[in-house]
């Protein structure tokens, strides 16, 4: 089993809403993985995709937390009015 296959399975396990690759794309990935350079490129691409998804999720979490904090502050400020 190629490391790229393992990395791909980890990626899909973490992101269950993502669609699997088409059979043609999977075949091209296996062809690239047959060479050392191709395998390194495939692994690097998978790692990049994981980091992009992580950064998107982190931004969404930060945005939601910020919105929640601002709403709590506004609620607290409205109770202090005379």
Please give a structural write-up.
With about 80 residues, the protein is mainly alpha-helical. It has one domain (about 5-10, about 20-75). The chain contains three helices and no strands. Helix 1 packs parallel to helix 3 (about 35-80) and helix 2 packs across helix 3. The protein is rod-shaped, with a radius of gyration of 21 Å. The model has no long low-confidence stretch (mean pLDDT about 75).
State the main characteristics.
82% helix, single chain, mainly alpha
Number of helices: 3
Question: What integer is the average pLDDT?
Answer: 73
> What count of structural domains?
1
Give the fraction of residues assigned to helices: over 70%
Low-confidence stretches are none
> How much of the residues is beta strand, in percent?
under 5%
Termini gap:
69 Å
The main β sheet shows up as:
none
Structural class: mainly alpha
Summarize the structure in short.
The protein is built from three helices and no strands. Helix content is 82%, strand content 0%.
Question: What layout of secondary structure does this protein have?
Answer:
Elements: H1 3-14, H2 23-33, H3 36-79
Helix pairs in contact: 1-3, 2-3
